[in-house]
DNA sequence: CTCACATTTGAGTGATCGCTCAATTTGATG
DNA sequence: CATCAAATTGAGCGATCACTCAAATGTGAG
């Protein structure tokens, strides 16, 4: 009954995610969103309540995708350590291909001011969840005997997330291509060195 | 002759630096600056030309301080590797003391949009200069025999800067205090492990 | 076809943005 | 003390911000 929305909600969210990821929260105006979502202000507010809420939904979407990607590859039976190594190499490759918008979570963590409690808290929570996904992956590696049994998966996950963070900021410096790939490769090598003998 | 400014230029710049470092470029309004600098809009524009130019000056001031700190400690004759280890520990300590505003350069690199060429380019240049300062410090360590003679100081500097970047983003996640200190300590330990035998 | 209602529309809200400039204040000089 | 140039002042500029709502529009049911 009655009229149906002409747009697909998830398609709109994807457009918002891309826009916010590239421009950040403050620099993205409703005018930008109107163009990207192909929606008029009234529709945007009817569908997503506010700019802030739309941002939160886009952030969730991004983080869920990151986690799902890891979980999915595990279920496909890929070797856990190789998944992680491919993950860090993919970041460098994405940057080299100039499709780089950075990590939405990292961008948000560093952009948000102390006043914006809601966004800040959400970004922190999601970042911790991503770290947990890394931990689960390393746990998988331990169970499969890829890593020594006495490895601390949580500590390793935090170390790895820090490497990812570092690489992502390094990408923002736009050094030459080889340097970024070397940096990613060096992290992959560090992971290789942790393998059970 | 004639009237003198009632404010000290560098004091004003320091206030601007602190404000921009904590709130970022977009979220800082002229009203905020008026309060922090205790200057009226006309004076701000007479002295600093524009919000963007004031931001660039503040960014320069921050980066120059970082570089000077390293160079100064070297001149005092401190051991190069200990300077670097103290540097990474200081980041964790600053965060633990809740005086954390993050690194102005990192914040800027990740906040700035592709359109803001001027700010982006400056931040990238300054970040590269800081990396050079790290490289000089490591070169010092090589010359002093603290590191093996075949160490590549530029590669080591980039690795170290990536660790600093990673730690700074980790700080923005507000994990518990011990985790941050552990992460910093682990970087310090990695440096220790590179010492010449 | 008509009605009921979910949905879109877009001009317009008040607030705030970065910024300007005519008027005023200040202080060193003669 | 009078002069004058440098500097501050703050009301207010046009533009843009996030957002609203009365009116127009599309759609499924009867």
TrEMBL record, chains A, B:
Residues 29-48 bind DNA. The lineage of its organism: Bacteria, Pseudomonadati, Pseudomonadota, Alphaproteobacteria, Rhodobacterales. Keywords: DNA-binding, Transcription, Transcription regulation. It comes from the Bacteria. Residues 6-66 form the HTH tetR-type domain. Pfam families: TetR_C_13 (PF16925), TetR_N (PF00440). This is HTH tetR-type domain-containing protein. InterPro entries: Homeodomain-like_sf, HTH_TetR, Tet_transcr_reg_TetR-rel_C_sf, TetR_C. GO terms for molecular function: DNA binding. It comes from Actibacterium mucosum KCTC 23349. Gene3D superfamilies: Homeodomain-like (1.10.10.60), Tetracycline Repressor, domain 2 (1.10.357.10). SUPFAM superfamilies: Homeodomain-like (SSF46689), Tetracyclin repressor-like, C-terminal domain (SSF48498). Coiled coil: none annotated.
